[in-house]
Write a structure and sequence with these properties.
Number of domains: 2
Low-confidence stretches: none
Largest sheet: 2 strands, antiparallel
Number of helices: 6
Strand order of the largest sheet: 1-2
Number of strands: 2
Distance between the termini: 60 Å
Structural class: mainly alpha
Length: 185
């Protein structure tokens, strides 16, 4: 008799994904190229258990294609393996494209913030170290929030001259940590 199916909690799903490096354990795919599922290594239909040791991270195509088949019973021909490798390569290419587009977008947004900085602080440019911080802030809170924080730091009359960038960083960290509207570090 098959083990009854139980829903897997979000916490357990996250723990399985984290344990497996957010990577499909069958083909190596990972987000954002695929949606991940938690799969039973030994299917419930074959008396597998609802236990974290019987769970594995699988992308949707691998999980749905496997169905209730035990992994020990799935022979793989060379043609199937070649198709799987080709699919894997397409996923990697897609993932790389997304990451390249992300990198270009971030570079553009860092440039926007640098231009905005120079507009509100004429005659000065952000250092390489400052640009690295700006990039991290953009990744966390978005370019618009970063520009608002920058404007707030450089237009607030109570901020000491020369301490504006430090104040700006404080605003950004406060937003990241969930502070009040990011207006004060």
């Amino acid at each position: 008799m098959a083990t009854p199916r139980k829903s897997i909690s979000k916490k357990t799903r996250f723990e399985v994904f984290k344990r497996d490096g957010f990577t499909c354990q069958y083909c190596g795919a990972h987000p954002p190229a695929v949606i991940l599922h938690v799969d039973h290594v030994v299917p419930l239909a074959l008396d597998g258990e609802n236990h974290i040791d019987n769970y594995v991270t699988a992308c949707a195509p691998c999980n749905l294609g496997k169905s209730a088949t035990s992994l020990a019973e799935v022979p793989q021909s060379l043609k199937e393996r070649a198709a799987e490798i080709a699919e894997h390569e397409m996923q990697i290419a897609g993932y790389q494209k997304v990451m390249d587009e992300r990198r270009l977008r971030l570079e553009d947004e860092v440039g926007q913030v640098a231009d905005f900085y120079e507009a509100i602080n004429p005659g000065y440019m952000l250092s390489t170290t400052a640009l690295i911080s700006v990039r991290k802030f953009i990744e966390s809170i978005g370019v618009h929030a970063v520009c608002e924080a920058l404007e707030s730091a450089y237009t607030r009359p109570t901020v000491r001259k020369g301490a504006e960038f430090k104040y700006f960083c404080g605003i950004c960290w406060n937003i990241i940590k969930g502070g009040k509207n990011g207006t004060r570090p």
